[in-house]
Specification:
With 544 residues, this protein is an alpha/beta fold. It has 2 domains: 2-353, TIM Barrel, CATH 3.20.20; 364-539, Uracil-DNA glycosylase-like (Rossmann fold), CATH 3.40.50.10630. The strands form 5 sheets. The chain has an 8-stranded parallel beta sheet. It has a 5-stranded mixed beta sheet with strand order 17-16-15-19-20, sandwiched between helices. Helix 8 (170-181) links the parallel strand 8 and strand 9. The longest helix is centred in the middle third of the chain and has 28 residues, at 293-320.
Length: 544
């Protein structure tokens, strides 16, 4: 058993997990197979959809089929020759309040007997909105059962899942993750997320998943139980979930519900299928409605699976292209609950920055203030503060507004400003430090202008108020930290609404730094250049 990571973006990773029955690629969706009800057979799911792994419930298999699965093995029993994962029955406890009349020891032994590839201990699910006392009990009991595994297991070729409990009590989630992470599990899983997702509390889910990730060994894959709808796959994967299971494709089919990447529609509400999958291209909503219940259920289950696997492939391609944030933002604007979750993700920007790749294969798209949580923006802010010093000879900070041309220092306006500095100061040119204030990064020193991603991005204009305020704040912080003797700001109020200038005035007044402002909307006129010329010269009057 091994987990090899090939590509990364945000907390997501494309990897390969090796089991005794073969490899499967992550992030992976494992369709849930109910051995009693199969609108699509496991064999079809493998052959038609290219599914490399699926999940079934060992408790249900044992309850209804007893020794048949033991004698045949779970792969032959399901007629699926790829990777099989088994759950333990904890879901039945959580959702149905069913009393599982098997011990943890019996569930462990049964999963070994049916020759599964990935197995789960019989954890005690916390549930949702339970008392701190009960949640603490579920964490302790699950940990106790996790430790029991080493005393019961007789095989070393099965990957075991160590579930994390605690529910909405994040302190207990952290405690559970830390203690589980010290045990020799190959995989971990976040327990009890289903009620959270059913209520569309994806901002709460963000807190739960990040808490788990921050307290587990990063090299171990994380499974998210019950993450069944494609409209939230990008969120789960961006947070670092490597695989998850879904019964929604079949459950929704029984209810005549049609999945899309942004939500769900009732079959009878559709006049057209917004999908080109093999199932949808062969029929129409009208014809699908006329099918028998069994045929209609099989059709919808097939389409729903196509929608799920299609979204997984889009996300993987976004990871390869280093555009997962853009894909996540697109999905966020497809549903308010996902947008709320992405905003909640902003709380964890330092953790995202710490664990995201430093360089990428493509530039960035900046749309609005939601993107201020991107790791690249926080990384620039942190490094400018902690690792950067202006040239030692610099006495005057010349702040120029961003231009459409990138790198900024190659724009016509910036070249004109440099000519003025060189013409007026000659040998003293090094006393002037030219920087650009630009969205979304804040201050961009000319000598860093071409460093990724300061020139490798596209920003949507006009800028929103929050973005303008962020840049103004970064400019003020930079002036306060770097200790220039004088500051000259070229103001473009059409773009910046005077907020950058106001921030400069306030911070310069507080630090007794002389400030001059030159107003210059694009294109720069001759009078603007003359004013800049006079301002630069005046800044050095009296100097030898």
């Amino acid at each position: 058993m091994s987990f090899e990571i090939r590509d990364r973006d945000l907390l997501a990773r494309i990897g390969r997990f090796k089991t005794k029955s073969g490899l499967f690629e992550t992030p992976a969706l494992l369709p849930v197979i109910n051995p009693n009800v199969q609108p699509i057979s496991p064999k079809e799911i493998g052959e038609e959809f290219g599914c490399e792994a699926l999940i079934t419930n060992a408790y249900i298999v044992k309850k209804h089929f007893q020794n048949e699965a033991v004698e045949r093995g779970i792969h032959r029993f399901l007629d699926f020759n790829r990777v099989v994962m088994t759950d333990s029955g904890a879901y039945q406890i959580l959702i149905y309040g069913e009393e599982v009349k098997l011990s943890n020891r019996e569930i462990i032994q049964y999963q070994e007997q049916i020759d599964t590839d990935i197995a789960t201990i019989l954890d005690v699910p916390t549930g949702w909105r339970v008392s701190q006392q009960y949640a603490r009990h579920t964490v302790a009991e699950t940990l106790k059962r996790a430790k029991e595994l080493s005393k019961v297991q007789s095989r070393d070729d099965i990957a075991w899942v160590g579930p994390i409990q605690g529910g909405n009590h994040l302190d207990l989630v952290a405690q559970s993750a830390k203690k589980m992470g010290k045990l020799p599990f190959q995989i971990h899983a976040l327990g009890s997320p289903t009620p959270v997702m059913e209520q569309y509390l994806f901002d709460t889910l963000v807190n739960m998943i990040i808490t788990v990730k921050m307290n587990l060994p990063l090299e171990r894959p994380l499974h998210l139980f019950g993450a069944g709808h494609p409209f939230m796959f990008a969120l789960a994967i961006a947070l670092g979930c490597d695989f998850f299971d879904s019964a929604a494709y079949a459950i929704f089919a029984r209810e005549d519900r049609y999945m899309t990447e942004t939500g769900t529609a009732r079959l009878r509400e559709l006049e057209y299928f917004p999908c080109s999958c093999p199932a949808c291209t062969k029929t129409s909503p009208e014809k699908a409605i006329a099918l028998s219940k069994t045929e209609r259920q099989a059709f919808l289950a097939r389409h729903n699976l196509y929608a799920c696997f299609s979204e997984i492939r889009r996300i993987k391609q976004a990871i390869v292209e280093s555009r997962l944030w853009e894909h996540l933002e697109m999905r966020a604007h497809g549903h308010p609950a996902i947008l709320r979750a992405v905003k909640e993700l902003g709380k964890y920007s330092p953790y995202l920055e710490e664990n995201s790749p430093v360089t990428k294969k493509s530039g960035l798209f900046f749309f609005d203030s939601l993107d201020l949580s991107r790791p690249e923006i926080l990384r620039h802010k942190t490094r400018l503060s902690e690792r950067y010093s202006p040239p030692k000879t610099a006495k005057l900070l010349l702040l120029l507004p961003q231009t459409r041309t990138k790198p900024f220092h190659k724009s016509g306006e910036h070249q004109e400003a440099l000519k003025i500095v060189q013409r007026k100061l000659g040998a003293k040119t090094s006393k002037v430090h030219v920087c650009t204030y630009a969205a979304p990064f804040g201050v961009v020193p000319a000598e860093l202008d071409e460093v990724y991603p300061l020139s490798q991005h596209e920003t949507a204009t006009p800028l929103d108020t929050e973005t303008i305020g962020y840049v103004a704040e970064q400019v003020a912080d930079y002036i306060a930290m770097k200790h220039y003797e004088r500051v000259v700001v070229v103001e473009n109020d059409e773009t910046w609404q005077k907020k950058v200038t106001s921030a400069c005035k306030l911070i310069c007044r507080e630090n007794n730094i002389p400030l001059a402002v030159v107003r210059a909307n694009y294109p720069w006129s001759k009078s603007v250049l003359n004013k800049l010329d006079a301002t630069v010269q005046a800044a050095f009057v009296g100097e030898k």
